[in-house]
Amino acid sequence: MKRLYAAMFALALPTVLAAQPPAAPPTDPVTASFRGRLTSLHRNLAQALDSIPADKFGYKPTPAQLTIGYIAQHLANDNYLFCSNFGDMKPARSNMELATPDSVKATWPKADLVTQLKAANAFCESALAQVNDQNIGAAVTMSLPNGQTRSTTRIAMVLGHALDNADHYSQLANYMRLNNLLPPTALPRPAAR
């Protein structure tokens, strides 16, 4: 009897699935994909830095590598660099933040570095709202920290931002594991309801 029910279910399933209306694609599938990925990366980076003890922000696995504090300040700087080229929106940053050398900012207290990263992430999420599938290929002029400019495309800036964040999340995840800490993406997932 169980086999009969299983066979009936197997035969009926394609019919039931075919009767379901297809899900509507997002309005801007390319930018929607980037938005989803960047939101996850921003969340994971903020959670990683939140969970690393303050006394580990000076940690680096070898002398040639970056400290956790340096990575935190670098992420904030790069987020502003990339995301200010998503459209007309520009960030408001303090003179102290702009004038302080990266090597000095890397030694700032954990709370300051995490706050700056979260502010940069919020700016990026707002700036990304200016991007859609129709304008993502547009030419932009990127202003470099040394005062020079370079012509590129908006998609290059969005992709560069995603890749930079993914690279540094991987870096932080390795640093965390070397310190017996679990990175956010390795934590057990909540049980399904």
Topology:
Elements: H1 2-19, H2 29-51, H3 68-83, H4 95-99, H5 102-105, H6 110-128, E1 139-143, E2 149-153, H7 154-178
Antiparallel strand pairs: 1-2
Helix pairs in contact: 2-6, 2-7, 3-6, 3-7
Short description:
With 193 residues, this protein is mainly α. 57% of the residues lie in helices and 5% in strands.
Written description of the protein model:
It contains 7 helices and 2 strands. The chain is mainly α. The chain has one domain: Up-down Bundle (Four Helix Bundle (Hemerythrin (Met), subunit A)), CATH 1.20.120. The protein is flat and about 55 Å long. It starts with a helix and ends in a 15-residue tail after the last helix. About 5% of the residues have low confidence.
Could you name the key traits of this structure?
5% strand; mainly alpha; 193 residues; 2 strands; Four Helix Bundle (Hemerythrin (Met), subunit A); flat
